[in-house]
Amino acid sequence: MKYKRIDSLIGLICLYLVSTLGIAQSLIAAQNPGYEAKARSLGIEFNTAAKPNDHFVPAVTTGNLVFLSGHGPRKPEGGAVQGKVGRDLTIEEGKEAARLTMIALLSSLRNEIGSLDRIRRIVKVHGMVNCPTEFTQQPAVMNGATAVLTSIFGDAGKPARAAVGMGSLPNNIAVEIEMIVEISPEQ
Structure pTM? Predict the structure, then answer.
Protein backbone atom coordinates (compact mmCIF):
# COMPACT_ATOMS: atom_id res chain seq x y z
CA MET A 1 0.00 0.00 0.00
CA LYS A 2 2.83 2.36 0.91
CA TYR A 3 4.56 1.72 -2.45
CA LYS A 4 1.35 2.36 -4.44
CA ARG A 5 1.10 5.82 -2.87
CA ILE A 6 4.73 6.58 -3.72
CA ASP A 7 4.24 5.29 -7.27
CA SER A 8 1.11 7.43 -7.63
CA LEU A 9 2.88 10.46 -6.19
CA ILE A 10 5.85 9.97 -8.54
CA GLY A 11 3.44 9.53 -11.44
CA LEU A 12 1.65 12.80 -10.54
CA ILE A 13 4.94 14.66 -10.21
CA CYS A 14 6.10 13.33 -13.61
CA LEU A 15 2.77 14.30 -15.20
CA TYR A 16 3.05 17.79 -13.70
CA LEU A 17 6.63 18.22 -14.92
CA VAL A 18 5.81 17.00 -18.44
CA SER A 19 2.77 19.29 -18.70
CA THR A 20 4.72 22.25 -17.29
CA LEU A 21 7.57 21.62 -19.72
CA GLY A 22 5.08 21.43 -22.59
CA ILE A 23 3.54 24.74 -21.57
CA ALA A 24 6.98 26.34 -21.26
CA GLN A 25 7.97 25.05 -24.70
CA SER A 26 4.72 26.42 -26.17
CA LEU A 27 5.40 29.83 -24.62
CA ILE A 28 8.94 29.85 -25.98
CA ALA A 29 7.69 28.82 -29.42
CA ALA A 30 5.08 31.59 -29.33
CA GLN A 31 7.76 34.18 -28.53
CA ASN A 32 10.16 32.79 -31.16
CA PRO A 33 8.10 31.51 -34.09
CA GLY A 34 11.17 30.08 -35.83
CA TYR A 35 13.14 30.81 -38.94
CA GLU A 36 10.55 29.35 -41.33
CA ALA A 37 7.88 31.68 -39.96
CA LYS A 38 10.31 34.63 -39.97
CA ALA A 39 11.09 34.07 -43.66
CA ARG A 40 7.35 33.92 -44.47
CA SER A 41 6.71 37.12 -42.49
CA LEU A 42 9.38 38.84 -44.60
CA GLY A 43 7.59 37.76 -47.79
CA ILE A 44 10.41 35.46 -48.88
CA GLU A 45 9.16 32.82 -51.27
CA PHE A 46 11.42 29.85 -51.70
CA ASN A 47 11.79 28.51 -55.20
CA THR A 48 12.38 25.01 -56.42
CA ALA A 49 15.72 23.78 -55.19
CA ALA A 50 18.54 23.17 -57.66
CA LYS A 51 18.45 19.70 -59.17
CA PRO A 52 21.39 17.30 -58.83
CA ASN A 53 22.87 15.68 -61.92
CA ASP A 54 25.80 13.41 -62.76
CA HIS A 55 28.34 16.14 -61.94
CA PHE A 56 26.59 18.38 -59.40
CA VAL A 57 24.75 18.15 -56.10
CA PRO A 58 23.30 21.32 -54.58
CA ALA A 59 24.22 20.38 -51.00
CA VAL A 60 26.29 17.86 -49.08
CA THR A 61 25.71 17.20 -45.38
CA THR A 62 28.45 15.77 -43.21
CA GLY A 63 27.96 15.66 -39.46
CA ASN A 64 26.35 18.92 -38.39
CA LEU A 65 27.59 20.92 -41.41
CA VAL A 66 25.91 21.48 -44.77
CA PHE A 67 28.11 22.58 -47.67
CA LEU A 68 26.11 24.29 -50.41
CA SER A 69 27.45 24.34 -53.97
CA GLY A 70 27.69 27.55 -55.91
CA HIS A 71 24.23 28.88 -56.80
CA GLY A 72 23.24 31.71 -59.09
CA PRO A 73 20.51 34.38 -59.12
CA ARG A 74 17.29 32.72 -60.28
CA LYS A 75 14.48 35.12 -61.15
CA PRO A 76 11.03 34.22 -59.78
CA GLU A 77 9.63 34.28 -63.33
CA GLY A 78 12.42 32.01 -64.59
CA GLY A 79 15.87 32.54 -66.00
CA ALA A 80 18.84 34.11 -64.27
CA VAL A 81 20.18 37.61 -63.72
CA GLN A 82 23.04 37.92 -66.20
CA GLY A 83 25.74 40.46 -66.90
CA LYS A 84 28.69 42.17 -65.30
CA VAL A 85 28.00 44.34 -62.26
CA GLY A 86 29.56 47.76 -62.86
CA ARG A 87 29.11 47.53 -66.62
CA ASP A 88 25.79 45.84 -67.53
CA LEU A 89 24.21 46.07 -64.08
CA THR A 90 24.22 48.74 -61.36
CA ILE A 91 25.33 47.98 -57.81
CA GLU A 92 21.66 47.92 -56.77
CA GLU A 93 20.87 45.38 -59.50
CA GLY A 94 23.89 43.38 -58.34
CA LYS A 95 22.58 43.45 -54.75
CA GLU A 96 19.23 42.16 -56.00
CA ALA A 97 21.04 39.38 -57.88
CA ALA A 98 22.86 38.48 -54.64
CA ARG A 99 19.52 38.48 -52.76
CA LEU A 100 17.98 36.13 -55.33
CA THR A 101 21.04 33.90 -55.12
CA MET A 102 20.69 33.65 -51.34
CA ILE A 103 17.02 32.69 -51.73
CA ALA A 104 18.11 29.95 -54.17
CA LEU A 105 20.69 28.73 -51.63
CA LEU A 106 18.14 28.69 -48.81
CA SER A 107 15.72 26.80 -51.08
CA SER A 108 18.33 24.08 -51.66
CA LEU A 109 19.19 24.09 -47.95
CA ARG A 110 15.51 23.56 -47.01
CA ASN A 111 15.34 20.71 -49.50
CA GLU A 112 18.45 19.14 -47.92
CA ILE A 113 17.54 19.49 -44.22
CA GLY A 114 13.73 19.78 -44.24
CA SER A 115 13.33 23.05 -42.34
CA LEU A 116 15.25 26.27 -41.77
CA ASP A 117 14.38 25.86 -38.09
CA ARG A 118 17.25 23.33 -37.85
CA ILE A 119 19.83 26.02 -38.59
CA ARG A 120 22.16 26.87 -35.71
CA ARG A 121 24.54 29.19 -37.54
CA ILE A 122 25.42 30.43 -40.99
CA VAL A 123 29.15 29.73 -40.86
CA LYS A 124 30.64 30.92 -44.15
CA VAL A 125 29.47 32.68 -47.31
CA HIS A 126 31.75 32.92 -50.33
CA GLY A 127 30.41 35.40 -52.89
CA MET A 128 31.68 35.82 -56.42
CA VAL A 129 30.63 38.86 -58.43
CA ASN A 130 30.88 38.90 -62.23
CA CYS A 131 32.48 42.30 -62.87
CA PRO A 132 35.08 44.23 -64.85
CA THR A 133 38.59 44.38 -63.40
CA GLU A 134 38.22 48.01 -62.27
CA PHE A 135 35.07 47.26 -60.20
CA THR A 136 35.80 47.29 -56.44
CA GLN A 137 32.36 47.24 -54.79
CA GLN A 138 31.97 43.45 -54.42
CA PRO A 139 31.23 43.75 -50.66
CA ALA A 140 28.36 46.18 -51.38
CA VAL A 141 26.90 43.69 -53.86
CA MET A 142 27.22 40.80 -51.38
CA ASN A 143 25.37 42.84 -48.75
CA GLY A 144 22.24 41.93 -50.72
CA ALA A 145 22.79 38.27 -49.81
CA THR A 146 23.84 38.66 -46.19
CA ALA A 147 20.94 41.07 -45.54
CA VAL A 148 18.61 38.14 -46.24
CA LEU A 149 20.49 36.01 -43.71
CA THR A 150 20.51 38.57 -40.91
CA SER A 151 16.86 39.47 -41.47
CA ILE A 152 15.86 35.81 -40.98
CA PHE A 153 18.48 34.45 -38.56
CA GLY A 154 19.64 37.55 -36.66
CA ASP A 155 23.14 37.16 -35.20
CA ALA A 156 23.17 33.46 -36.20
CA GLY A 157 22.97 34.70 -39.81
CA LYS A 158 26.15 36.81 -39.65
CA PRO A 159 28.72 34.65 -41.43
CA ALA A 160 32.40 34.84 -42.08
CA ARG A 161 32.31 36.17 -45.64
CA ALA A 162 34.34 36.62 -48.78
CA ALA A 163 33.30 38.91 -51.64
CA VAL A 164 35.50 38.63 -54.69
CA GLY A 165 35.37 39.77 -58.29
CA MET A 166 35.44 37.33 -61.21
CA GLY A 167 36.19 37.99 -64.87
CA SER A 168 33.35 35.63 -65.79
CA LEU A 169 30.87 33.26 -64.19
CA PRO A 170 28.95 30.30 -65.68
CA ASN A 171 26.34 31.37 -68.25
CA ASN A 172 27.28 35.00 -67.57
CA ILE A 173 25.37 35.03 -64.26
CA ALA A 174 25.90 38.19 -62.22
CA VAL A 175 26.62 36.48 -58.88
CA GLU A 176 27.53 33.02 -57.61
CA ILE A 177 27.53 32.14 -53.91
CA GLU A 178 28.66 29.10 -51.89
CA MET A 179 27.68 28.63 -48.25
CA ILE A 180 28.48 26.50 -45.19
CA VAL A 181 25.80 26.09 -42.50
CA GLU A 182 25.78 24.46 -39.07
CA ILE A 183 22.57 22.56 -38.28
CA SER A 184 21.09 20.83 -35.25
CA PRO A 185 20.42 17.08 -35.34
CA GLU A 186 17.05 15.89 -36.63
CA GLN A 187 14.42 15.50 -33.95
Answer: 0.81
